[in-house]
Design a protein that fits this description.
Layout lengths: L13 E7 L11 H21 L5 E3 L2 H10 L1 H12 L3 E3 L14 H19 L5 E4 L9 H7 L4 E4 L10 E5 L5 E5 L16 H14 L4 E6 L10 H12 L4 E5 L2 H15 L6 E3 L14 H28 L7 H10 L11 H32 L15 E6 L6 E10 L11 H5 L4 E4 L5 E2 L2 E3 L12 E10 L3 E9 L22 E3 L3 E4 L8 E4 L2 E2 L7 E6 L22 E4 L1 E10 L3 E10 L2 E10 L4 E10 L4 E7 L4 E6 L2 E5 L6 E2 L3 E6 L2 E7 L4 E5 L2 E8 L23 E10 L5 H9 L3 E4 L10 E3 L1 E4 L4 E7 L6 E6 L6 E7 L2 E8 L4 E9 L2 E7 L5
Parallel strand pairs: 1-8, 1-9, 2-3, 4-5, 5-7, 6-10
Antiparallel strand pairs: 6-7, 11-17, 11-37, 12-16, 13-14, 13-17, 15-16, 17-38, 18-19, 19-20, 20-21, 22-23, 22-28, 24-25, 25-26, 26-27, 27-36, 28-35, 29-30, 29-32, 31-34, 32-33, 33-36, 34-35, 39-42, 40-41, 41-44, 42-43, 44-45
Length: 843
C-alpha cells in the first residue's frame, strides 16, 4: 500500500468511514491475566501497523487497557498518547471497561463513566463523546440519560436487533437525554469485527447501504476481535484494491468522533426527520445471561450495595465529625471489573468465574472492615456507657445501631451477645432450654424495652445459659444512630409490648398471620397459600417452585430468532412439593414459618416471616440445587402487568415479553390486588399467563453455546451446583416498594461497642436527604478533593424540591424533574453551605 492508507479520489458523493478496532474480552474463554495480556499485545501490533501505514487509524475504549499499558508498558502508552494527539488514535467509550448494560446498579454504571472519563481526560486531555458498546447484550432504557449526563453525544452499537430499521437514529431517554446512534440495520452483515477473508464482502455491503440510504456517510467496523487482533495487512491491501475499482465512493480510515461529526452535519443538511427517534430499551439479547452464574450474581449484588452504603456513610461521618472517610477505590474497581459483559452475565469459563468470585469475596471482606472502622469511630464519639451493676456482676453490652440510608427507617434489629464470660449456673438446665432469663434491653434514654427472644445462631451448649439473642423494634432517623444495651439483670421483668392489632401467635401448626397476611403450609401440597386481607393473593395454587427444562447454553439461545421457544421457557420438568413445615417463632414482634420444598435431587428451605403491622411477607431462602440443563423458577400467579426497576430507572413491559432483565423490584397489578416483589439477588423475570416468574438459578454448562440435555456429555460441569442463599419480600399495597427493596439490600447495621463517655448523645443523626422519596445514588468525597459529591435521582412522577442536611448545615439542591438524575458538588465557604450542579464526571 506504500506509505499511506488514505485513498485519494475525486470529490465523492458518498463516504465509507473505515473504523479499525479490536474487541478484547479481559475475561471470557480465558482468565483475566491472559485477557489483559492480549489487550496489550493488540495495542503493540496495531501501533506497528500504524507506523507502516501512516494514515491508518484505530479506535480503543476501556480505560482498563490504558491503565494496564501505562503500568506494564509505558513506552507503548507514550506512543498512543502521541497518536491521540495526532488524531489517528480515537479514545472512545469513556467507561472503565465494556460492562453489561442491563444488570449493574445505576450508580455502578455512573462509576464506569466517572472512572473511565476521569482517567482518559487526565491522560489524553479529552473526554470521549462516543459510546462504543460493541459487544453488550442489550441496553437498558435508562442508559441514554446516564450517557448524556456524562457528556456523551453519540453511540455506536451492534446488538441486539435495530429498533428502527434505519442505521442512524436518535435515542431519547425518559428524563430528556438524547444520543445520535449508529447501528447496522437488521439483515446487514456487519458487526464490530470481521474475518481475515471477508473484507471485500463487507465493503460491498456497505456500498449497497450507501446507495439506498439518504445519508452520505456510513461506517464500516472492521478488525479481528474477541481476543484482540485488530486490522490486518490483508484487510488494508484489499481495501486499497477495492477502492481503486470504486471511484464513485470515498473510502477513508476514520474515527468515531470524525464519523459522528459528519453524521450530525447530515442531520442538519437533510433535516432532523431524516433520522427516526426511539424511546425505550434496546432489548432483549442472550436472555440466559440474566440468570446464569447465580452465585456470582448474588455475591456481586451484595458487594455493590455494601460498597455504596459504606462509602456514603463514611462521607457523611467525615462531613459531620471531620474524620477521614475510608478509601474504597479498590473495592469499586472490583465492582466495575466484575460488571464486565462476560463476567456478570455468567458467560465465561468455570475457572475464570471462580477467580472472579474470589475477587468479589476479598472486596466484601475489606468493605466490611471499613464499615467496622466507621462504626467504631462513631461509637467512640458517642456516649456508650452502660448502667452500673453490683460488684462481680457482668455489665450489660452496648450496641451501636446505625441506619446507613439517608432516610428514616422503622424496623426490627437482632441483638446477640454473651451475657457473661462463662455460662450462668443459676439459669442453666431447664431454664436455658426454655430461654426463660431475666434480660433487660435499654434504649438510648435508659428506658427498658420489650423484646422477643429468638434462637441463637449456634446449636451447642443448649443446656447452658450463656449467649442470648433478642429481637427489638427501633426507629432511626436518616443516617441516624441509637445506643442500645442488653444485659442479664436478676429479678427484672421486661415490659410487655403494646398489643399489635391482629398479630397472631400461630393459631395452628403450619400457619402464621399478622393484621395483613396469613400463610398456610400443608405438607404434601404443591404450593404455599398466601392470603392478604383474607384474599388468596396467588389463588388456590399459591406460591410455587418449578424446575423448568432449559437445554440452552450459558447465553441462552445464541440465535433467538431461530429458537423462539428459548425466549420464554415453559416446559415443566417437575413441580416441587412442600414436604415439611414448622413454626419457628411466634412472638409479639415477629412470627416465622420454615417450609421445605423438594423435587428431583434438590431441596429449598424457605423461612417466611411476618412482622407486627408490616404489610409484607419476608423470606430467606437456602437452596440446595443439583439439577442439570434446567432452571428453578419461583411462580407467583398473582397477575402479569409488570413494572420493573431497571438500570437507570423504571420500565413497564407488556405481559408476554418473555425472559427480561429486572433489578431490585417488580410491581404487579393483578386481579386480586396490587403487590410487589423485591430481592437481594435476582435479575431474571417473566410475566405472562397471569403470573410473575422469577428465576432463582439455572444450570447451563459453563461458556457453552450448545443445546444439551441433562444427561448429555455428563463429564462437562453445569453451573450453580450446590448451596445458594438469597432473600426476597412480597409487599402489599400500603408498603412503598422501592424503599422496602432498598432496606432489604442495605439493612440497619448493628455492632457491639465499647463502653465510653463520648461527647455526642446516645441517639442522633448525621443528616439526610429530603424528601425521602428521592433516591440517593452516591455521596462521596469529590475526585479532586474539593468538597463532596452527591448524586440523586427523582423516581417520582412530579418535580421534587431537594435538600440535604449534614449536621447543622442544610444544602438547597433545587428542583428535580420526574425521572431526573442530578449530581452536585457540596462545599462550605466561610460557614455558608452551597451546592453547585456538575456533570456526572464532576465537572
Amino acid at each position: 500500500m506504500g506509505d499511506s492508507a488514505r485513498i485519494s479520489n475525486k470529490p465523492p458523493v458518498k463516504t465509507i468511514h473505515l473504523i479499525p478496532n479490536a474487541h478484547v474480552d479481559p475475561v471470557w474463554l480465558w482468565d483475566s491475566r491472559e485477557g489483559l495480556t492480549a489487550g496489550l499485545a493488540t495495542c503493540r501490533a496495531v501501533i506497528a501497523l500504524m507506523e507502516e501505514f501512516h494514515d491508518l487509524t484505530f479506535v480503543r475504549g476501556e480505560s482498563l487497557i490504558y491503565r494496564q499499558l501505562e503500568r506494564e508498558d509505558p513506552a507503548t502508552f507514550k506512543k498512543i498518547q502521541q497518536l491521540v494527539k495526532a488524531g489517528r488514535w480515537d479514545v472512545v467509550g469513556g467507561t472503565f471497561l465494556q460492562p453489561d448494560t442491563n444488570l449493574p446498579a445505576t450508580e455502578t454504571f455512573c462509576r464506569q463513566l466517572l472512572e473511565g472519563g476521569t482517567y482518559l481526560h487526565a491522560r489524553f486531555g479529552r473526554r470521549p463523546q462516543v459510546v462504543w458498546a460493541a459487544d453488550s447484550f442489550g441496553h437498558s432504557a435508562g442508559l441514554c440519560d446516564l450517557y448524556a449526563a456524562a457528556g456523551m453525544k453519540y453511540m455506536a452499537i451492534t446488538r441486539p436487533g435495530n429498533p428502527t430499521g434505519r442505521p442512524a437514529w436518535w435515542w431519547r431517554g425518559p428524563a430528556g437525554g438524547k444520543l445520535l446512534v449508529y447501528q447496522y440495520p437488521q439483515g446487514i452483515y456487519g458487526t464490530y469485527q470481521n474475518e481475515r477473508h471477508d473484507m471485500i464482502v463487507r465493503l460491498e455491503e456497505t456500498l449497497a447501504l450507501l446507495k439506498t440510504d439518504p445519508c452520505a456517510h456510513h461506517p464500516l467496523f472492521f478488525g479481528l476481535g474477541n481476543h484482540g487482533g485488530g486490522p490486518t495487512r490483508r484487510h488494508i491491501r484489499e481495501i486499497l484494491a477495492w477502492a481503486k475499482t470504486h471511484p464513485e465512493v470515498r473510502v477513508e480510515f476514520s474515527t468515531f468522533h470524525r464519523f459522528f461529526g459528519e453524521l450530525e452535519k447530515e442531520a442538519a443538511r437533510l433535516g432532523p426527520e431524516v433520522f427516526p427517534s426511539y424511546t425505550g430499551e434496546i432489548n432483549a439479547c442472550f436472555r440466559g445471561c440474566y440468570a446464569s452464574a447465580a452465585n456470582l450474581k448474588t455475591t456481586y449484588r451484595r458487594l455493590e450495595n455494601e460498597v455504596a452504603a459504606t462509602e456514603a456513610a463514611g462521607a457523611a461521618l467525615s462531613a459531620v465529625l471531620g474524620t477521614t472517610p475510608p478509601s474504597l477505590k479498590s473495592e469499586w474497581e472490583t465492582v466495575l471489573f466484575n460488571s464486565f459483559h462476560d463476567i456478570l452475565p455468567g458467560s465465561a469459563i468455570e475457572r475464570a468465574l471462580h477467580e472472579q468470585l474470589d475477587s468479589l469475596a476479598g472486596a466484601r471482606h475489606t468493605t466490611r472492615a471499613a464499615r467496622q472502622h466507621l462504626l467504631t469511630t462513631l461509637s467512640a464519639a458517642v456516649d456508650t456507657t452502660v448502667a452500673k451493676v453490683p460488684d462481680d456482676h457482668p455489665e450489660a453490652v452496648p450496641f451501636l445501631v446505625f441506619n446507613p440510608l439517608p432516610r428514616p427507617v422503622t424496623t426490627l434489629v437482632e441483638l446477640e451477645t454473651c451475657l457473661d464470660h462463662r455460662p450462668i449456673p443459676a439459669w442453666s438446665g431447664s431454664h436455658a432450654r426454655t430461654r426463660e432469663m431475666p434480660l433487660r434491653v435499654l434504649d438510648a434514654k435508659g428506658t427498658p424495652l420489650p423484646w422477643q427472644g429468638i434462637a441463637e445462631e449456634h446449636r451447642c451448649f443448649q443446656s447452658y445459659a450463656w449467649r442470648r439473642r433478642v429481637l427489638v423494634p427501633v426507629t432511626l432517623p436518616a443516617w441516624g444512630w441509637q445506643v442500645l444495651q442488653l444485659g442479664w439483670v436478676p429479678g427484672t421483668t421486661p415490659p410487655k409490648p403494646a398489643p399489635a392489632a391482629g398479630f397472631a401467635r400461630s393459631p395452628r401448626r403450619g400457619v402464621i398471620a399478622n393484621d395483613h397476611w396469613s400463610l398456610t403450609a400443608r405438607p404434601g401440597a404443591r404450593g404455599l397459600s398466601i392470603a392478604r386481607e383474607g384474599v388468596k393473593l396467588f389463588g388456590t395454587a399459591g406460591l410455587q417452585l418449578a424446575t423448568i427444562e432449559d437445554p440452552w447454553g450459558a447465553w441462552g439461545a445464541m440465535d433467538e430468532a431461530a429458537a423462539p421457544e428459548s425466549l420464554d421457557l415453559k416446559t415443566v420438568r417437575e413441580f416441587w412439593t412442600l414436604t415439611d413445615a414448622h413454626v419457628l417463632e411466634s412472638g409479639p414482634f415477629r412470627a416465622s414459618l420454615w417450609v421445605k420444598f423438594a423435587a428431583g435431587r434438590s431441596t429449598a428451605e424457605i423461612t417466611f416471616t411476618l412482622q407486627a403491622g408490616r404489610d409484607a411477607v419476608d423470606a430467606s431462602v437456602r437452596l440446595s440445587w443439583n439439577e442439570r440443563a434446567a432452571r428453578l423458577k419461583l411462580l407467583l400467579p398473582g397477575g402479569d402487568r409488570a413494572r420493573y426497576s431497571i438500570l437507570g430507572g423504571e420500565l413497564a413491559r407488556p405481559a408476554g415479553s418473555g425472559e427480561v432483565p429486572g433489578g431490585r423490584w417488580v410491581e404487579i397489578d393483578g386481579p386480586r390486588g396490587a403487590w410487589g416483589f423485591a430481592s437481594d439477588a435476582l435479575y431474571a423475570f417473566n410475566a405472562g399467563a397471569g403470573r410473575l416468574e422469577a428465576t432463582l438459578c439455572r444450570s447451563a454448562r459453563f461458556a457453552c453455546d450448545e443445546t444439551l440435555g441433562a444427561d448429555d456429555v455428563p463429564h462437562i460441569p453445569a453451573m450453580d451446583q450446590g448451596v445458594h442463599t438469597l432473600s426476597f419480600l412480597i409487599s402489599g399495597a400500603t408498603l412503598p416498594l422501592a424503599p422496602a427493596a432498598e432496606c432489604l439490600e442495605r439493612p440497619v447495621w448493628v455492632q457491639q461497642a465499647l463502653s465510653s463517655p463520648g461527647a455526642r448523645p446516645r441517639a442522633g443523626t448525621l443528616g439526610g436527604l429530603e424528601p425521602s422519596t428521592l433516591e440517593m445514588l452516591a455521596f462521596k468525597k469529590a475526585e479532586n478533593g474539593r468538597g463532596f459529591i452527591l448524586r440523586i435521582r427523582n423516581p417520582g412522577a412530579k418535580t421534587a424540591k431537594a435538600t440535604l442536611k449534614l449536621g447543622v448545615e442544610k444544602f438547597v439542591l433545587g428542583p428535580l424533574k420526574a425521572g431526573e438524575l442530578a449530581t452536585f458538588r457540596l462545599t462550605t465557604n466561610q460557614g455558608k453551605p452551597s451546592a453547585h450542579s456538575v456533570s456526572l464526571l464532576e465537572v
